[in-house]
């Protein structure tokens, strides 16, 4: 792991952005279903 110190630290921005987008999309769907269920009561 000594070689990685010489290079710039690799940050997988694409993977992080994809993970955040997937999480936000899941929350939007979850809250959408949640509020639909609350309206039915």
Automatic annotation (TrEMBL):
InterPro entries: Cyt_c_oxidase_su2a
Sorted UniProt keywords: Membrane, Transmembrane, Transmembrane helix
Pfam family, one: CoxIIa
TM annotation in the entry: 15-37
Protein name: Cytochrome c oxidase subunit 2A
Superkingdom, natural source: Bacteria
């Amino acid at each position: 792991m000594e070689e990685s110190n010489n290079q710039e630290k690799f940050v997988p921005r694409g993977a992080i952005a994809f993970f955040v987008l997937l999480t936000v999309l899941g929350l939007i769907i979850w809250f959408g279903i949640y509020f639909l269920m609350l309206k039915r009561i």
